[in-house]
């Protein structure tokens, strides 16, 4: 069985390691030929330097090598997925599993819609949930949601990709799984900003709680199921991402709150997702005050203190 992973960043590399340690043949694709050649020689990558690549992982910078895989894990950033699919026609026909968490800014849609638009008829799924690349690479227990509208395909992928330490729970609620994974990054930025500005644990708890309600509000309006948002891909991922310094989105929020610079080379999916989610909410008439606040912070249009004052001045009402 051959599993292909497109994207040699930290998460893609971790997934490749997990699949190879489970006895599967893995092809890991990266865009930079020099970096791929170096990783092939040293069996380590710059994005996940503490982890060694098993012999079962074959590295490549040629997309043609991914053709015909039993499943292709798309571990490229959410905003890079649409242009990536345009240059990868050889992937059509293989089940494609989106691993990025976000909403495409240009189309205001999730990753499976981008896959279906690029390759009509190709099975599309999303893999999401509470997970850090370092934990997966170390073989630590991790549970994720695998969502696919085709239940037969979902069951096949579940058995093809699950490992002893990587447990996949399947769902047909693609909308809920995608939005849970995307919106929790926005809330993680908000929580990080509160902590960076030294507003305290209580403020973060309030933001996390109201942020979860906001995630549900938008997802349910778009046809998602409440239980999906209460599961791994929603609440579970939110708790991990909004409370741990291992989260890039949380660290980004910390930097905003503390008025510190943040490494621009680090991908922060929630920064773009905030704007995309806000545009989507306005299109369907759903109020997302925390998302709007994060979008303003990311754009440099507001200060953390002003944003908090605005959220606290909202009308008093029943919870």
Automatic annotation (TrEMBL):
Binding sites annotated in the UniProt record for substrate: 101, 248-249
Glycerol-3-phosphate dehydrogenase NAD-dependent C-terminal domain location: 173-308
Enzyme class, UniProt record, top EC level: oxidoreductase
Binding site for NADPH: 11, 31, 101, 133, 248, 269
Keywords for this protein: Cytoplasm, Lipid biosynthesis, Lipid metabolism, NAD, NADP, Nucleotide-binding, Oxidoreductase, Phospholipid biosynthesis, Phospholipid metabolism
One record GO biological process: carbohydrate metabolic process
E.C. code: 1.1.1.94
Domain of life: Bacteria
Location within or outside the cell: Cytoplasm
All copies of domain Glycerol-3-phosphate dehydrogenase NAD-dependent N-terminal, residue ranges: 3-152
Gene3D superfamilies noted in UniProt: N-(1-d-carboxylethyl)-l-norvaline Dehydrogenase, domain 2, NAD(P)-binding Rossmann-like Domain
Function text: Catalyzes the reduction of the glycolytic intermediate dihydroxyacetone phosphate (DHAP) to sn-glycerol 3-phosphate (G3P), the key precursor for phospholipid synthesis.
Listed name of the protein: Glycerol-3-phosphate dehydrogenase [NAD(P)+]
Provenance organism: Pseudoroseicyclus tamaricis
Origin organism lineage: Bacteria, Pseudomonadati, Pseudomonadota, Alphaproteobacteria, Rhodobacterales
């Amino acid at each position: 069985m051959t599993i292909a992973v497109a994207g040699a960043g930290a998460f893609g590399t971790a997934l490749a390691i997990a699949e190879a340690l489970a006895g599967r043949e893995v092809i890991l694709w990266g865009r930079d030929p020099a970096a791929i050649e170096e990783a092939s020689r040293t069996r380590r990558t710059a994005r996940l330097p503490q982890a060694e690549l098993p012999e079962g992982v074959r590295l490549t910078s040629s997309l043609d090598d991914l053709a015909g895989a039993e499943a292709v894990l798309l571990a490229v950033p959410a905003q890079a997925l649409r242009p990536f699919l345009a240059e990868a026609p050889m992937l059509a026909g293989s089940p494609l599993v989106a691993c990025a968490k976000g909403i495409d800014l240009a189309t205001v849609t999730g990753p499976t819609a981008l896959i279906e638009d690029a390759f009509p008829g190709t099975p599309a799924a999303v893999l999401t949930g509470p997970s850090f690349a370092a934990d997966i690479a170390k073989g630590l227990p991790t549970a994720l949601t695998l969502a696919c509208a085709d239940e037969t395909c979902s069951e096949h992928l579940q058995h093809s990709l699950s490992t002893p330490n990587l447990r996949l729970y399947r769902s047909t609620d693609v909308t809920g799984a995608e939005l849970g994974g995307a919106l929790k990054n926005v809330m993680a930025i908000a929580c990080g900003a509160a902590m960076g500005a030294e507003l305290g644990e209580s403020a973060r708890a309030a933001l996390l709680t109201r942020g979860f309600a906001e995630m549900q509000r938008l997802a349910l309006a778009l046809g998602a199921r409440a239980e999906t948002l209460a599961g791994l891909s929603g609440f579970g991922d939110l708790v991990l991402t909004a409370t741990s310094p291992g989260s890039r989105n949380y660290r980004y929020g910390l930097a905003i709150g503390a008025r510190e610079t943040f490494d621009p080379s680090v991908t922060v999916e929630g920064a773009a997702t905030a704007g995309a989610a806000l545009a989507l909410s306005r299109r369907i008439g759903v109020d997302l005050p925390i998302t709007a606040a994060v979008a303003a912070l990311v754009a440099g249009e507001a200060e953390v203190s002003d944003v908090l004052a605005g959220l606290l001045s909202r009308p008093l009402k029943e919870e």
